[in-house]
Amino acid sequence: MIMCPLYPFHIIILYFCLLLPLLLAVVEGAESLAAWKVSFSASSIGKGNETEKLRELTTKNFEVYCSDCVQNKESIYKLELKNEDPRIASMESGNFTQNDEGLMEMDISGKGREWSISVNVTGTFLGFTSIRSKVEETVKDGNIHAQPSEKPLHLTVTRSKAKKTASKIFGYSVAALISFAYINFGCALDLNVMKEVLRKPIGPAIGLVSQFIFMPLCSFALGYIFPWSSPEMRLGLFVTGTSPGGGASNIWTIMFGGNLDLSVTMTAVSTFAAFFMMPFWIYVLGEVIIDGTQIVIPYMKITTYAVMLVVPLMIGVSIRKCLPKVADFMVKIMKPLALFLIIFILVCGIWSQFFMIKLIDWKIAVVGFALPWLGFAFGCLFSKLCRRERKDIIAIAVETGIQNTGMAIFMLWFTLDHPAGIVSACQHLVCANICHIAFVINRNNNDPSS
Predict the structure, then answer these.
(1) How far apart are CA 394 and CA 229, in angstroms?
(2) Residue 245 contacts residue 403 (beta carbons within 8 Å)
(3) Max CA separation in the chain (angstroms)
(4) What angle do CA 250, 259, 368 make, to 5 degrees?
(5) For a tag on the chain, would you pick the N or C end, based on fewer CB atoms within 10 A?
(6) pLDDT in tens, 273-305
């Protein structure tokens, strides 16, 4: 018996010969689509001046162009447009509309070598999204070949004009109240007490490490431990972590029997440190958070606004030195002002930014709960390891966990372009409100000395 000299490779060669026509068809189909040049009429929509912005419930138009689009008569062709976040915008073209997943498919079989399709896009909620295109060819034997576009179309949807007015009122009110609060804080600073506390600077040093090393790194890590959060929310969480201790921390320190002198000194030290530590951290890790997004961080603007907050603080210090009676009166209204600021941000923030409720779900609430309470835990454990007394431990823990709500909102609101500023501020509002609500519940259910 004579065996094939190619045995046993003749079986492989036989199968290859049978598959060769199919492989040639696949290659030919891929090559025909590879020559298609599909593009958008613009790289982005919604950026620029007032006439170029895409506001909620307004519509803009863009074109999808195709050149060198040679079709095979025996194939079926369709154009797919995919909206990455269908909550932000909706598309329509003639009788075609996007589905709940943000996908819109259009039959383009029989079109010529050069063609274009007009698409309307309507803003539905503020935020960022992208539209990607893809052409699919279904050949006679049922195989499908796809050719995606090289670059997406970026969409930026901003607030409606009615919401913009309410947001401006809230934003400028917060800025005015923060400035007044900083004047009051400057009046409350007793330089002699601060000198006495700083003679043994262990407490303030623990607070500084907790506030500006642990909290920024913790907030950065939380943004990636919970991967479902958007870059805007991550940035808001990170800016919250880089913020100094707030005036509310002094109030809660008193309520829970902590060392008020240490708390006030730590607030002063962290406030002055924030003027360069916030820009530093945002510069170091901010770019990592916004990598691949449409957000632009204006570092110079952030630094300028941080330094500007020194002015009302120094005005307060000057009033204390030159007009002590006026300073004493300002100190008397400091606690009610801090309480009013918290209530104002909570109530008026909900009134003017009620639409932001759509951005908040249980996952955002979990992150908002985790950051301040991890700060409390770290401040408490670190100060215990350093063998601080109980009053100091309370002051350090509270100062670490409670951030300056107004300063973070001020920085996000006035430095970032909208809608990034609004969306990122949402995460900070969640952190602040959950923290204060939890403290109120704890205060009502427990004895301060426990």
Answers:
(1) 32
(2) yes
(3) 119
(4) 45
(5) N
(6) 887 788 888 888 877 877 766 666 666 766 676
